What does this fold into?
Amino acid sequence: MVKEIERAGIPVVHMCTVTPISMTVGANRIVPTIAIPHPLGNPALSHDEEKALRRKLVERALEALTTEVEDQTIFEV
Amino acid sequence: MSYKVVHYINQFFANIGGEEMAHVAPELREGIVGPGLAFNQAWKGEAEIVKTVVCGDSYFAEHEADAKAQILDWVKAEKPDFFLAGPAFNAGRYGYACATICAAVQDELGIPVLTGMYEENPGADLKNKVLMVATANSAAGMRKAAPAMAKLALKMMKGEKIGASCEEGYMPNGIRKNFFEKKVGAERAVDMLVAKLNGKPFTTEYPMPSFDRVAPNPAVKDLSKATIALCTSGGIVPKGNPDHIESSSASHYGEYNIAGVEALTSEGYETAHGGYDPVYANADPNRVLPVDVLRDMEREGKIGKLHDFFYTTVGNGTSVANAKSFAAEYAQKLLQAGVHAVIMTST
It folds into this structure.
């Protein structure tokens, strides 16, 4: 799906936990996330801490979108 | 003397449970578990599964280094003649785990390995490294997959010559094998042409390599003026799943309006995905589709706008062809709506 969005001319960042799969499907901008059932959260944290964690991940994704890349790139958080 | 085999399977095939148990750490059991029975029967005493490693699919994906180290230790201690994994059919994380652990056993312990999965499984990406039998896309294919894998595995254990992929049933691994065809090339070419003219299926003998990569688009210049859209394969839908997106093998996607929605609540949204434990996503759907933080950033002027619609489907056993057509379609809608960039989340 990321590839089709990219093909349409829109830059896309893929946020996922299993980054090797993201590489296989051909995402160009990749941000690793927390866990498969809760990529953008961590139920062990308090609500505020969890939201701050989510914010950090989304900020990293936006950073990826504003960064020029030539090849598949993983933006570690 | 019969050959000693160690078998790797996931929590589902070990009867521990489905997604709610996918977090379980690796465990070593004596003898056969689940699908191991079919292999032992096919080998008729010539080879035998002595130990079975069971590991949760999420555990492997999330703790790959730990899981690999632990399993390699067990296999090393057992000194088997062969290591078998799966078959994983179209289960993505399971296929990935099977291929990855096989590669590790083969490379680090020098033990021959074999796995099996559906050709579209992401784990099949390692087919040039690890021998894998092509299977059907669901466990209903076990009756065909187990004998095919057992046969090839036994040949490998006996050190017999392995034929071409089309003869043995493994996925083409880039290694060319010479053999004599029954018909000469001219005859085969004419047969193929006749089949093609009649609209009948035919198989090329020289498939073109496919490099389906799309070059990255230029970066977003000014986030504060950009409209950002959210998309997901994690199955987030309005509560009650109004468009009945299937929990696996999705046949369609959903388009939902979130204009004015400050955050996704458990009262308003849930996941339709049947391939991961839904408890966390249902309790707080922002954990999969981060509407809450993007709304904050929109208010703070960090991004221009969060797009009024999000696009969603269930990426669980959904065919590549379907996923491709969903996204190709909604990408055009995003383009027409003037969206500058997309955040895609996956579970």
User: Anything to note?
Assistant: The mean pLDDT of chain A is 96.
